[in-house]
Amino acid sequence: MPAPTAGTVDDVDRPRLAPYVRLTFDPARDGYVLLAPESVSVLNGTGATILELCDGRRTVAEIVAELCARYDGVDGAEVRRFLTRLVAQRTVVVDPGVAGGAGHG
Amino acid sequence: MDRPFGLLAELTYACPLHCPYCSNPLNLADYGEELTTAEWLRVLAEAKELGVLQVHLSGGEPLQRRDLVEIVRGAGELGLYTNLITSAIGFSPRRAEQLRAAGLDHVQISVQAAESALSDRIAGLPSFERKVAAARLTKKLGWPLTLNVVLHRGNIDGIARILDLAEELAADRIELANTQYYGWALRNRGALLPSRAQLERAETAVRTARERLKERMEIIYVIPDYYSRYPKPCMDGWGRRQLTVVPNGDVLPCPTAHTLPLPRAGVREHSLAWIWERSPLFRRFRGTDWMPDPCRGCDRRELDFGGCRCQAFQLTGDAGRTDPVCHLSPDHGVVIEAVRAANGTSSAGRPEAVFVPRPHPRRSAG
Ligand SMILES: C[S@@+](CC[C@H](N)C(=O)[O-])C[C@H]1O[C@@H](n2cnc3c(N)ncnc32)[C@H](O)[C@@H]1O
Ligand code: SF4
Ligand code: SF4
């Protein structure tokens, strides 16, 4: 099995939260937060929705499609930039897409 | 007002090791009257209410607290992210499984060097083999593994081997942090501060390893602030993101702030919210109004907050001055002097082998 990679995300990648990262609601700040060993990111509503869709099964393209089905005015490039940032920060990992679309699991 | 994100819970200053770089207070005996389990659980609940999301369980050696599992479980039930910072002494398979079941999120294990002889000599106790076993156990139980290594003159040349060890142990992250000069480390600074040549070699080794391991391991490397032009943004600002509760219940803006001549504030007398929001201690250096020149008019004042208050106090006797590490500080000469001594050919002012090992504190509660 190929190792998860860092770098920019592709449409065929399947992002998921890194194993030691937790997405949770913070009542004190009335918003979602992403907790990692040495970092905390406060998310806006869209950010939290994107991360809920990062289940390691959906591809980036499927996540964007899902967001477009739920909301108006979703910018796919913006979603990819957001995920790329989190991959660089190692809170999200991607299992690289397999050519031909044969996913695992 | 900002809400704190992180709580550093220093559960006890008891510790079986004697690291000469230990940042713990010199007067360890003053902290013997430790908070009880019930008091810690109350502190955690108040911290959560205040906005804290992460709890770093440290010390001393947190595994010396018999109620560690209970404290972890309590934190988990509050929805806090729990991080154990440990020397690994006391991390037995049974204890580890209990911590896993209690919901501990993350484990950081410190090692002193990559070779058992050197690691044990620095730690002052045969401990390397136990650390390696604990690291393997951490992975086996499904935790991510972070290794912590404090770098200094005596181990920094082995940094490539330390990185190899981390790779062999399948660490997910490694924090290679040059010693910060507080507590026992300041006392031992002459023997600990590395030379510029050592640092350059270390940086090359880090770059090479990052290239090789980039997909597998996150490598965090912290340079010694004595060698940088600007100070570190200490605690991301005084009373802004973090707070520390020490074993006897005193609350501090940073773990070394007990050295400052400021009024104390403790959870046995006040609520955490009052301490964070109103205590004179937390208000003293919050924001930028307290700043002297050259910080007052400097573009970087919101970036580094004028550096570290404890370092300013230790090196100048005045906690309200610019951190002398900053090249713009009028006191920068004291740092230049220490760096010069670390790079001199003679060993004058650099008592090479005479570390003062951190002793064992006496304690009462537990
Ligand atoms: C004070 S220790 C307490 C936890 C545990 N006894 C241990 O050493 O891992 C907390 C962390 O700070 C690191 N540390 C100790 N003294 C330091 C110093 N002077 N500068 C930087 N880090 C230090 C330790 O390596 C450890 O990762
Ligand atoms: S002596 Fe070493 S192991 Fe003990 S608290 Fe200090 S840094 Fe940690
Ligand atoms: S003068 Fe003060 S604010 Fe400016 S860089 Fe130095 S320490 Fe930071």
Please describe what this structure looks like:
The complex is a heterodimer of chains A (105) and B (366). Chain A has one domain: Arc Repressor Mutant, subunit A (Orthogonal Bundle). Chain A has 3 helices and 5 strands, in the order ββββαααβ. Chain A has helices at 45-53, 60-70, 76-88, and strands at 14-17, 22-26, 31-36, 39-42, 92-95. In chain A, the strands form 2 sheets. In chain A, strands 2-3-4 form a 3-stranded antiparallel β-sheet, covered by helices on one side. Chain A has a two-stranded antiparallel ribbon with strand order 1-5. In chain A, a hairpin with a 2-residue loop joins strand 3 (31-36) and strand 4 (39-42). The longest helix of chain A has 13 residues, at 76-88. Residues 1-5 and 99-105 of chain A have low confidence and may be disordered. Chain B has a 9-stranded mixed β-sheet. The longest helix of chain B has 18 residues, at 196-213. The model of chain B has no long low-confidence stretch (mean pLDDT 93). The interface between A and B is medium-sized, with 17 and 24 residues. The complex binds S-adenosylmethionine and iron/sulfur cluster (2 copies).
**Side-by-side strand order of the widest sheet of chain B:** 7-6-5-4-3-2-1-8-9
Helix content of chain A: 25-40%
| Counted beta strands of chain B | 9
Uncertain segments of chain B: none
Structural class of chain B, by secondary structure, is alpha/beta
Strand content of chain B: 5-15%
For the largest sheet of chain A, list the strands in their spatial order: 2-3-4
- Dominant shape of chain A: globular
State the share of residues found in helices of chain B, binned by percent: 25-40%
Radius of gyration of chain A: 14 Å
Q: Could you name the CATH class of chain A?
A: Mainly Alpha
The residue-averaged pLDDT of chain A reads 83
Beta-strand percentage range of chain A? 15-25%
Q: Which CATH architecture of chain A is right?
A: Orthogonal Bundle
Distance between the termini of chain B: 35 Å
Count every helix of chain B, treating DSSP H or I runs of 4 or more residues as helices. 14
Write the H/E string of chain B, N to C. Answer: EHEHEHEHHEHEHHHEEEHHHHH
Which fold name fills CATH's third level, the topology of chain A? Arc Repressor Mutant, subunit A
Low-pLDDT runs of chain A: 1-5, 99-105
Total number of domains of chain A: 1
Shape descriptor of chain B: globular
